[in-house]
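Colleagues,

For the teaching module next term, I've prepared a clean inverse folding example: a structure given as tokens, and then the sequence designed for it. I'd like students to try predicting residues themselves before seeing the answer, so please don't circulate the second half yet.
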């Protein structure tokens, strides 16, 4: 099911998707056991899905903790107009990070960085690592910071956000709520979301929820989690994203796009246009 054209914003932006090629060899998490994902995914694979859903532009987010992968994505972006921005990776605690950020910022589609906090062994790393010089460089070049976290990282991220009030931060995938656990993890997650939403420079991506749900999810499965994100951040700090092709593990592009539109049907046209495009354009300076 697709959403009627009359209800779509003028420019829909997928604020979170990936392209990769396993043959590149730097995706530690991407193994042959993930059969649905273990192959190259590029702009030609996403093009028919974008056409069916009316998504014109995308933000491509890093999937490997390497500068080489960031450069690979920037190369793709130079040759594909649908890629509006790239969120890459740099070693934020390395003394060379400011110089590297300055060099990458010369690429017009380089729009931010993501340190993959969920995979760092120390949950408090972002609050304790020597990243201040790198963050100053991000701010100086008007770049954003993607926070890939679970609720357990929220306290450390709060410390980081307080320390850098001029840095634009977006929480990926709604902080990966424990949807499969039902009410068991609701309180900790909802509390973390509410605390992070207190900071006006923090936005949140309405993405990744299907992946965190159990198989056979429906609108009703995701509704309370979407409503909590909306209540916390409001329509003007939520960015819709697909998390494709990771989405293929437990859903598909058309279904998640249509589900999100149905769950947000009660909003005004302006609010829906914000979530499905305008917010991403503003946040990432696309």
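(Answer key — instructors only)
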């Amino acid at each position: 099911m697709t959403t009627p054209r009359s209800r779509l914003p003028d420019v829909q932006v997928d604020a979170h998707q990936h392209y990769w090629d396993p043959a590149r060899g730097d995706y530690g998490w991407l193994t042959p056991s993930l059969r649905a994902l273990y192959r190259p995914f590029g702009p030609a694979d996403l093009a028919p899905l974008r056409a069916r859903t009316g998504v014109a532009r995308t933000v491509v987010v890093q999937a490997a903790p390497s500068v080489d992968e960031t450069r690979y994505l920037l190369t793709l972006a130079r040759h594909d107009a649908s890629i509006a921005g790239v969120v890459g990776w740099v070693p934020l605690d390395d003394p060379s990070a400011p110089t590297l950020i300055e060099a990458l910022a010369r690429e017009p589609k380089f729009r931010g960085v993501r340190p993959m906090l969920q995979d760092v062994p120390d949950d408090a790393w972002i609050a304790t690592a020597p990243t201040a010089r790198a963050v100053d460089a991000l701010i100086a070049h008007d770049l954003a910071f993607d926070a890939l976290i679970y609720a357990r990282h929220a306290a450390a991220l709060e410390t980081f956000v307080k320390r850098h009030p001029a840095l634009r931060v977006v929480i990926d995938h709604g902080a990966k709520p424990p949807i499969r656990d039902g009410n068991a993890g609701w309180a900790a997650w909802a509390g973390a979301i509410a605390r992070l939403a207190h900071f006006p420079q923090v936005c949140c991506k309405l993405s990744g929820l299907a992946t965190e749900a159990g198989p056979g999810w429906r609108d009703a499965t995701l509704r309370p989690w979407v409503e909590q994100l909306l209540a916390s951040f409001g329509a003007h700090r939520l960015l819709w994203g697909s998390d494709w092709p990771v989405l293929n593990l437990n859903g598909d592009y058309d279904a998640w796009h249509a589900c999100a539109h149905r769950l947000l049907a009660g909003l005004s046209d302006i609010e829906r246009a914000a979530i499905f495009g305008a917010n991403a354009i503003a946040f990432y300076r696309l």
